[in-house]
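Aim 2 progress update. The chain analyzed this quarter is reproduced below.
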Amino acid sequence: MLEKLSKLLDVEELDRNLFRSRHHVENYRKVLFGGQVLGQALMAATRTVEGRMPHSLHAYFLRPGSSELPVIYDVDPIRDGGSFTTRRVVAKQKGRAIFNMSASFQISEPGFDHQVDMPTTGIPAPESLKNTQQLAQEAGLVSPQHDQRRFMIDFRPVDPHSYFGAEVREARCMFWLRAEGEMSDDPLEHRCALCYASDMALLGTALQPHPISLFDPHLMPASLDHAMWFHRDFRADEWLLYVTDSPSASGARGFCRGQIFTREGVLVASTAQEGLIRQIKS
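Predicted structure tokens:
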């Protein structure tokens, strides 16, 4: 098992604009975790950019990947402008594309500044909450998919029922999260780490208004796409509040949004995702 998320996100340079993953998250289904591909693809793209940080990315998951094989990341340096840089990344296994992403990078510059307020009412401190592994044990759901040590993210639902429960609820969830272990001061490492963590439990928000859990054996969930915007600097190894909602679900797809705040209430990133939530007939 890997000790640090930074080690997982590191990629090996094979040739100019061509990279390969060094490690993978262990998965009992042998299916590649989407957050891993997101984080590694962003790391690969950034290795081809100098002096600019990623501010947004838009990605599609094309095929299920295998957690038992390395991933090849082919970076296309589409544009290098005066203020912005664009990169396209195609992730492949066995010669077939499993994922593609466009990422945009910007020079640091001043400008207008405003943000929405972080929710504060009824939100307990992360130290007072149980993590997903503890909750899974209490619910009798102990299995590799609930072992957060494999994912190297300390993930703590504000409402435990929003993660494991199947009761009908408002399509809104909140989670505290942070990368386990201290990370370097490189802001890129923290953005890639948050990119990795942002895929966790986001899709489950679309199931809140329905009497079914994300872990129901009669459900086929899968991320279809993922978008992310970085607003301000942060540390992924410090507590962040992930606030998610789902405005719509239809056609076996659920649409979800997320806002990520520091403990002090600073909005650092936003996410959006549509995923497959197909019920399987027994």
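The chain is about 15% helix and 40% strand. The helical segments are 5-9, 34-46, 132-138, 148-151, 161-164, 187-197. These observations will guide the mutagenesis experiments scheduled for the next reporting period.
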